[in-house]
Structure formats: structure tokens, C-alpha cells
Amino acid sequence: MRILLWYWGRRGGGAQFTLGLAQALAARPDVSLRLSLSAQGELLDTFRKLIVPTDIVDTYSDLAGFAMALPRIPALRHNLMQSANEATVVVSGMTHLWTPLVAPGLARAGHAFVPVVHDATPHPGDFGWAWNWRLGRELDAARAAVALSAPVAQALARRRPALPLIRMELPALLTGPLPPRRPAPPGALRLLFFGRMRAYKGLDLLRDAFRTLHQAHPGATLRVVGEGDVEACAPGLAALPGVRVESRWVAEDGIPALLAEADALVAPYREASQSGVIPQALAMGVPVVATPVGGLSGQLPPGAGGVLAGAVTAAALAAALARLFEPGVLDRLRQEAKAAGAARCDWAAAADTLLAGLDRVLSAG
Questions:
Q1: What is the tens place of the pLDDT at every residue in 158-196?
Q2: Chain centre to alpha carbon of residue 31
Q3: Which UniProt keywords apply (predicted)?
């Protein structure tokens, strides 16, 4: 199968996912792979190590660059079409601001276009009208779509009942060697929240839950790392005893070291399709405490190294976190996480699933 894997984003989960998938597909003797990538991509040098044909597209790095680059979209669309002429299917690793402007042209030209859909509904706080317009344009152009969690698949089926779906799990991508874990001092528990700070990620729940936890267990600490305004999401969180907030972007090669310094990852989301950082944590043997929302429950089945709160409340989250202080619980969760995490890094199995789905869809015409 000849696959053009397309991702014009610069960084984050889409770049990680596309790289992992590209590495797995490039290793397949039955796949002829070509890439279309942003020149500004954070992982571009790693992509280049694959030694496959690659189209490097100059996109943008900031808002001003975005505006200045808009007139170039017709030429970029034409160039993508030329590459698509040599492919059996065009797979979009993750949506980009320009995807809805380009994807319809692929369909008009008769090219099979299959987007990987990470989110099928806008998160609370997203601009719903623009979000729905963007996804609608992509789905209208699609021959099929890839869903990375059961909730996403269900939402897509409601939105486009006739559109074939390929259900694929989200594997973990660790771009560097696993650093040695640093043991915590006796009586300490180092919690980590990692990711963009957005309202739907429940930092206000985490604030109230940690306040309760710290009162009962003064050895607990919480590190909050990611881009965003923590005060807008959870006023007063940074002022709590034991809390350290780092509002910054973490490059892909810095994520393993960040996780290695944590005893547990906390995902206190109010809503979620799935989480990219949960498989990464499990792959490093780091247990996860999460709220039972969206695809998080599917990522943390019993025995997978995680604790699901009983409800999406601060009290339930505090109770779930307190379980980590019970004798033997943290050690058991670490062992479960290591076992579950090994399977979460199986990109070859993910590629098998994708190729089987693509073959089924393309064979059906």
C-alpha cells in the first residue's frame, strides 16, 4: 500500500502520534511511505532519520506567520495533490488549521483521504462553531476516519452514520531513553499534572482535592507543568502548600525526565476523548489517578496501573489520591503500570490495525 502521511502541525500530541505511526509504517515491507511535514515541526530531525521521501512544507511559527502564509495555501494544496497522485491513500495524522482548506480538494480529485480524529466534539471552552466547521469539512472529504477511543468512535458514528470507521488504540511514544526513576523520600508522594492548562482538564477539581489530601498527608506534593494560565483555570492553586506551578512548554525529549520524577500522574479532567500522556506515564511504570470521563476509563481498565475516582468531584478525586498512601498500593500500581505500559508502546500492532482498516475501506471502493 502506498501511503502519504500528512501532518503540518508543529508540536504536541499530533507530532508524537504521526512520528510513532511513521516509524511503524516505514518498517513495513508492504508499505511505500511518503511524508508531508511542516518545516517548523519540533520533531522534524527525528522524522528525517526514517529515510523515506518527505515533502517539507513551510507553514508558520506564530499568529503573524499564519496570516502571512495564507496566500500560499493554493500552491501548497497543489503540491500535496501532486504527491497524492502517487499514493493509494492520504492519511492525516492530526488536524491542522489548514486541513479543512486542503482536504476537500483531495476528495474532489478522487484521492482517498482518511483523517485520524483525536476529538469528535469540541472541548468546553473551544470555539464550537469554528471547530464544527473544521471537522465537518474533513469528514465530508473523508473516505473513512480513524477513531482513537470508543467515545470518539461513538460521536463520529452519530455525526456521520455512513462513514466507515477504523478503531485504533493510542500508543505511547517515548522519543528518548527512559531515565532512571528517582525514589521519593519516606512518607512523600510526588504528584504530577502535565499538559496544556485548559478549563476542561479539571485543575479546579485538582486544587480542591489536593488541599484535602495535603491536610491529611503533608508529605504530598503537586507539580503542575504545561502551557497556559493556571489562575484562569484554578484560582489559588499555585498558592497552596506543596504545589509548584511551571507554566512552560516541555519539548518531546524532556517528557521522560519529567515523568521519572513523579510517583503518580494525575488526570483530573472534566471531559476527555483520550489522553496522550497516560500511555506515556504507564510506559514508564508511573501509576495514573484519573477521573472516570470519556476515553480515560478505557485507558485505565482494572489492573492497568491506574486508579479511577468514583465520580468527577474533588472529594472523589481526593479519595482516589489518598489510596496511594495505603500500604502496598503504590508498589502494586507501579508493577501493573510497567506491564500495561509495555503493551502501550506497540506501534507495530497499531499499524497492523490501521492497514487492515484501510485495506477494508479501499477494497469496498
A1: 999 999 999 998 887 765 566 777 777 777 899 999 988
A2: 25
A3: Glycosyltransferase, Transferase
Going by pLDDT thresholds of 50, 70 and 90, the confidence category of residue 33 is very high
C-alpha cell at 207: 486544587
**Amino acid at residue number 198:** R
- CB atoms closer than 10 angstroms to residue 12: 16
Is there a contact between 225 and 248 (Cβ–Cβ < 8 Å)?
Answer: yes
Which residues have a Cβ under 8 Å from the Cβ of 91 and sit 6 or more positions away?
3, 4, 5, 6, 21, 114, 115, 116, 146, 354, 358
Tell me which amino acid residue 314 is: A
CB neighbour list of residue 21: distance below 8 Å, 6 or more residues apart: 5, 91, 93, 347, 350, 351, 354
pLDDT value at 342 more than 80: no
- Report CA-CA distances (Å) from 133 to 137, 153, 214, 226, 319: 6, 19, 44, 28, 40
Sheet order of strands, 306-308 included: 243-246, 220-225, 189-194, 264-267, 288-290, 306-308
Of the candidates 230, 186, 238, which has an alpha carbon nearest to the alpha carbon of residue 210? 238
All structural domains of the chain:
2-168+346-363 (3.40.50.2000), 189-344 (3.40.50.2000)
Helix axes 73-84, 99-108, angle to 10 degrees: 40
C-alpha–C-alpha distance, residues 51 and 336, integer Å: 36
